[in-house]
Amino acid sequence: MATSISSSYTSGQINITGLGNGTDFNALIDGLVKAESVRITRLESWKKEWTDKVEQFQALNTKMLSLKTTLEGMDTMDSFMVKAVTSSDSSALAASADSSAQVSTHSIIIGQLAQNDILTTTSGVSSLTSSVMTSNSNITFTYAGTSITLSNVAAGTTLTGLVNYINNDALCSGKIKATTIFDGTVHHLQLYGLGQGDDNQVVLTSTGGLIFQPADFTNTQNAQSAHIKVDGYPVGAGTWLSRDSNTISDVIPGVTLTLKQADPSATLQIGITTDTDAVKENIRTFVSQVNEVRSLIMEMTKVDTTNAKNPRGSLLTGNYGVQIISTQLKDLIAEKGLGFNYYTVSGNSITGDYFSSLSQLGISTEADQGSVNNGLLVLDEETLDSALAFNPDAVAKLFAADYLGESDSQSFSYLSKINGTTVAGSYVVSITTSGAGISSATINGHPAGIDGWRITGAYGFDEAGLVIQLDNHAPNSTTTGTVNLKLGKAGEMVKKLKELTSKSTGPLHILEENYGDITDSIDDKIDYETTRIAKLKQTMQEKYARLDTLLGQLTQQQTQLQSAIDQLGNS
Peptide bond before 234: cis, by omega within 30 degrees of 0? Predict the structure, then answer.
């Protein structure tokens, strides 16, 4: 039997003809190559384990990013705590409220609506393309007491050209707008003051060569301010709260009023309530989304104990990166909120927050190993309902306080912080005064900067950028207390998830890079083994080809000798 074997390492063919005793050199070589290839198989299996881990890291990272996106939709008081507002006549008055609005009712009387000033010419022109300028000249008017001059408007300018000239002039931007109105016969020029309110009057002082003189303009709508009374204030038939807009947000804290119809004789009512159903739905979403991440981690790291004598771990069982994520997220849920303190009552003094941990709202981790929810968050609806009924604002703060600063001292108050720099938490403050003002101050024991009656946390510490104002200016005194910069659980979770999913410092990213290096190293080993085995196969082919040739020669010689012996025996 003749067999031809091709090799990429030689040109031409290597021929192994075989021996008469039936030895199959090709099968022998293939067997040896297969035995040598076991290591490649092991390397490929090993590589797959690492790539499978990376795929699971990516799935977990995607799930955490999804959780972060969900929580970013509820990490502020306004997005988390929905306040509903009703109006006794929505055609006359509408209102909305943010989270700071108190649950209450208010009476509103609308004396008049705010409106802008409109001047309209009493006469007009037959066409928009009719010339309205008889000579090159200036047009001057005042708006809100400020003089505006349109310089050198050209003779022959049409009505449409004048409208465009006014609307494109930088001096008129945000103040005056020109337009036209057609009465069915002629086109009139109109000048609008863009601001509402008593002071935003438009007055023509000189029109130069314009065919419409100042006396030709009539005040078809007079600028005026909105007049309202809130809860009977101000008292008196002729006194009103005055605002230069029909949207008013600075009278009732947290409430924006939209005035639609004036009637000095009508008293309107608005009612502000907390939409507890919306708040509860946000909390249910929080629990559900956190559980999705927990469930995925548990699935990735579970141990199969079906065979008690030989339990089998999952691909990521014991993985330190996943353990870091699981532990940090669990700790965040279990610990009290950043900047929150336990509620205490001592005599007439109350300190701390009524709700400072999620467990007080009925959120806990199921510890019953026999439960299908073991290891997941569970929500006690009755406890949550009681908390919302007692103090919905405190519930919302625990979830959605967005760096809310509060002082427990009557002598100083929280003023501001630097976004992205000041860290949420509780800060012990000590301020000492002299006859000249603040002489020294510390925040968490670190010297603070002093500027008049304000102190600022020093850079290099968590309190960097925290600004506190001393309200008690008594000389030669020392005041101590605590400023709490609160971050709700939704915001805290968002912050933690940003860290864990970071493409530069996140644990999964670091592990993915490390595992990528490992798989690259395995690929190098596989390439090395593939090359080594190919060379080994070539060497064996060449070796056995030579052996086959040698054995063929010996066989031929044996045949020749046997023939010679046979001839001698017959002679």
Answer: yes
